[in-house]
Amino acid sequence: MIATLAATGLIAAFMQTVVTPIIPELPTLLDTTRADASWVLTSTLLAAAISTPISGRLGDMYGKRRIMLALLIVMAAGCVIAALSNSLVPMVVGRVLQGVGLGTIALGISILRDVIHPKNLGGAVALVSATLGVGGALGLPLAATIAQYLDWHFLFWLAAALSLGAIVAVVLVIPVSTLRTGGSFDVVGALGLAVGLVGILLATSKGTEWGWTSPLTLGLLLGGLAVLVAWGFFELRTANPLVDLRVASRRTVLLTNLASIAIGFAFFVCTASLPIVLESPVGSEVGLGLPLILASLCLMPLGLVMFLLSPAAARLSATRGPRTSLILGAIIITVGFALAVPFLDQVWHVILVSTITGIGVGFAYAAMPTLIMRAVPPTETAAANGLNSVMRTLGSTISATAVGIILSTHVVDGAPSREAFHYVFIMGAAVVLVGVVIALFIPRRLANYDTSSIPVQN
After folding, report:
1. For 161, which of 46, 142, 203, 427 is 20 to 30 Å away at the CA?
2. Which segments of the chain have a pLDDT < 50?
3. CA 296 to chain centre
4. Do 336 and 287 form a contact (C-beta atoms < 8 A)?
5. Side-chain half-sphere of 9: how many Cα atoms within 13 Å?
6. What separation in angstroms does the CA of 12 have from each of 45, 75, 144, 306?
7. Residue 412, beta-bridge partner list
């Protein structure tokens, strides 16, 4: 079951990087403008942010395995639509459906609580959490190789085949969920959360392109915030909320979610900046001139160490508590970013920075779901993990925008300057240190919930 859920997470994470090798060619391939082609990425981000908490709540109500299968079917359909696309609109539709499927990672972590004994739960959670980084690490060089030597449509046919394999594995291996929560689905709450998140994430991701003071950007940002405030008041007053804000406001859950924003921010600092260093021309201030495939291989340690160190992260959480693992991970990330400021002149410098960052992210990612699950009742596991995933997505979105602004405003001879990358990693280290301070206030001792659905071992 652990292997199946980990493989499913790998496949879902692969959907995020499947288009990365063809991003520069998308305007030509889809016969559109560069600005419109950016929707191929933005649409997936928005769909994932919206669907993850909603699918988590549906999983708590109707069975996590059932909803996971539904998400995988939607993801497979999106892959097929993208594989048959030669224009922008069907491609965006396909990418939206692929983004919906990314909710399977949070659901997979939640299923572990129902089927794995508590003494083995930490290691299983750490392993499945690491798939978010491993999927990108393995998927990027694979996608780059296919894009270079085959027709780009094969990228999505491969993704479709992997999705179908995940569906078969889940049907054969994962048992039917026995833990269900009652009540009715909060349709109004789901719509409110979707509208609010779309407004904020769209303004954040498109602000540089549209202008931060443009009426459209400000309207989406302020409107999204207003909708989320109204949504919060509504959720507190409804009998069956999409997200129980009283549980979400508990000290452990709230602080973990805030720290998750910082960790998500840090993860994207690396994934957004280091490829530019590796692939920029040698004549630029920091460019190393590597082709995409070699650059992808150099970045693999960022995800691989998350996977390889997941047992160590689980042992640390078990012996010292997940709070300690989260704090240690954030400190390691800070060290990696500090090294990136003076050392980005050689390929091995980039590999070192990505490896250290991957170690830190691995410890942090292993800790956050465990902290959440220890602080919420079993009937709200999937919804709470879904919200935590949204917080990481929010951090990554803010990071992408901030990194993009810095790199585009500090340019020498058509490429980002060395000073730009100094600012990027100093900013990343500062954000992560804020996350460390937040994590220090997470309670050391947590009241563990129990559930009869967890198998008993003597």
Report:
1. 46
2. 451-458
3. 19
4. no
5. 27
6. 13, 8, 17, 16
7. 415
Q: What does the alpha-carbon distance between residue 265 and residue 392 come to, in Å, rounded to a whole number?
A: 7
Mean per-residue pLDDT of the chain: 87
pLDDT tens-digit series, residues 240-269: 888 888 888 888 999 999 999 999 999 889
- 3-class SS string, the chain: CHHHHHHHHHHHHHHHHCCHHHCCCHHHHCCCCHHHHCHHHHHHHHHHHHHHHHHHHHHHHHCHHHHHHHHHHHHHHHHHHHHCCCCHHHHHHHHHHHHHHCCHHHHHHHHHHHHCCHHHHHHHHHHHHHHHHHHHHHHHHHHHHHHHHCCCHHHHHHHHHHHHHHHHHHHHHCCCCCCCCCCCCCHHHHHHHHHHHHHHHHHHHHHHHHCCCCHHHHHHHHHHHHHHHHHHHHHHHCCCCCCCHHHHCCHHHHHHHHHHHHHHHHHHHHHHHHHHHHHCCCCCCCCCCCCHHHHHHHHHHHHHHHHHCHHHHHHHHHHHCHHHHHHHHHHHHHHHHHHHCCCCCCHHHHHHHHHHHHHHHHHHHHHHHHHHHHHCCHHHHHHHHHHHHHHHHHHHHHHHHHHHHHHHHCEECCEECHHHHHHHHHHHHHHHHHHHHHHHCCCCCCCCCCCCCCCCCC
Q: Is there a contact between 21 and 299 (Cβ–Cβ < 8 Å)? A: no
The separation between CA 338 and the C-alpha centre of its own chain, rounded to angstroms, equals 23
* Contact yes or no for 65/170 (Cβ under 8 A): yes
How many Å is the Cα radius of gyration of the chain? 21
Predicted local distance difference test score (pLDDT) of residue 286: 82
Please report the pLDDT score of residue 447 as a whole number.
Answer: 56
Q: Residue 127: exposed, middle, or buried by beta-carbon count in 10 A (0-12, 13-18, 19+)?
A: buried
- For residue 407, the one-letter residue type is L
- Alpha carbons 15 and 160: distance in angstroms, whole number: 10
* pTM of the predicted structure, to 2 decimals: 0.84
